[in-house]
UniProtKB/TrEMBL annotation:
Gene3D superfamilies the UniProt entry points to: Ribonuclease T2-like
Domain of life: Eukaryota
Gene Ontology molecular function, alphabetical: hydrolase activity; ribonuclease T2 activity; RNA binding
InterPro entries, per the entry: Ribonuclease_T2_eukaryotic (IPR033697), RNase_T2-like (IPR001568), RNase_T2-like_sf (IPR036430), RNase_T2_His_AS_1 (IPR018188), RNase_T2_His_AS_2 (IPR033130)
Sequence similarity: Belongs to the RNase T2 family.
Gene Ontology BP annotations: RNA catabolic process
Active site per the UniProt annotation: 83, 137, 141
PROSITE patterns in the cross-refs: RNASE_T2_1 (PS00530), RNASE_T2_2 (PS00531)
Region forming the signal peptide: 1-25
Keywords attached to this entry: Disulfide bond, Endonuclease, Hydrolase, Lyase, Nuclease, Signal
Organism: Sesamum alatum
Cellular component GO terms, alphabetical: extracellular region
Tagged with keyword Flavoprotein: no
Full protein name: Extracellular ribonuclease LE
């Protein structure tokens, strides 16, 4: 929780206790008032509206002109990997680098590292053990939700979401396989929506031959980092997809 949950919040809570003694508890106006005061306190403390949970297809990261480097721990699984869990505002903009005083500390997440190597693999060059990627994600995005999730909670929330949103399994069950063939983006999106119950947003990129391909899938998550929600707003831009895109092998 930290410093934001400060004296003014405590004063409000004390005030509420006094009021609750004076008030009839079943008075709905009273509950409305409690809700208003509590909402104000909480929005000061959390300072974002929802998360984007973003997964990427490694085949589409690696077959670009920029190419990729496998992590020092070896080639990642042939599965979607986590890109990030990003706090966002309903107006479409997002906070970043919110707390330089809370740097990435791998000792807080040592129990999660093997799962992160499997599910949140780094593909950037030069080849590295993943720490560069994870520290970037924490410092740019994670620090902006630190009122809700500490460092361990943040990485763990993303890993839990990854197992909840099993994109490859959902797509393969719908006959959409990473086989280098073209698939209709609206069919991909419908399969994911049917699989998770919420509408995803899809981003594409371009391979060395200039073909558009399935690159990233965004879903939205409530401020606790645990429940999927319908996206309050989709990312700006059109995601660079054509109506039909390749799903390359990895
Ligand atoms: C979006 O909302 C946030 C939080 O209320 C605010 O800080 C930010 O300035 C807004 N950005 C734009 C572009 O309106
Ligand atoms: C990764 O390498 C960095 C040094 O480059 C080291 O500090 C860190 O402990 C390593 N982490 C893992 C998980 O191997
Ligand atoms: C996918 O579609 C693009 C654009 O129509 C085309 O250039 C490409 O050859 C197709 N790929 C396959 C594997 O059919």
């Amino acid at each position: 929780m930290g410093t934001k949950f400060n004296r003014s919040v405590l004063i409000k809570l004390l005030l509420l206790q006094c009021l609750s003694v004076l008030s009839e508890a079943q008075d709905s106006d009273f509950f409305y008032f409690v809700q208003q005061v509590t909402d104000t306190s909480m929005s000061e403390a959390q300072d974002f509206d929802f998360f984007y949970f973003v997964q990427q297809w490694p085949g589409s990261y690696c077959d670009t002109s920029q190419s990729c480097c496998y992590p020092t721990t070896g080639k990642p699984p042939s599965d979607f990997g986590i890109h990030g869990l990003w706090p966002n505002y309903k107006n479409g903009s997002y906070p970043s680098y919110c707390d330089p005083d809370n740097p990435y500390d791998e000792s807080e997440i040592s129990d999660l590292i093997s799962s992160m190597q499997e599910n949140w693999a780094s593909l950037s060059c030069p080849s590295n053990n993943g720490s560069t990627f994870w520290s970037h994600e924490w410092e740019k995005h994670g620090t902006c939700s630190e009122s809700v999730l500490d460092q361990h909670g943040y990485f763990q929330a993303a890993l839990k979401l990854k197992s909840k949103v099993d994109l490859l399994q959902i797509l393969q069950s719908a006959g959409i396989n990473p086989d280098g063939r073209n698939y209709t983006v609206s069919v991909i999106a419908s399969a994911i929506r049917d699989g998770i119950g919420y509408t995803p947003w899809i981003a594409c990129n371009v391979d060395v031959a200039g073909n558009r391909q399935l690159y990233e899938v965004y879903v939205c998550v409530d401020t606790s980092g645990s429940s999927l929600i319908e996206c309050p707003v989709f990312p700006q831009g059109d995601g660079k997809c054509t109506s039909s895109v390749e799903f390359p092998a990895f």
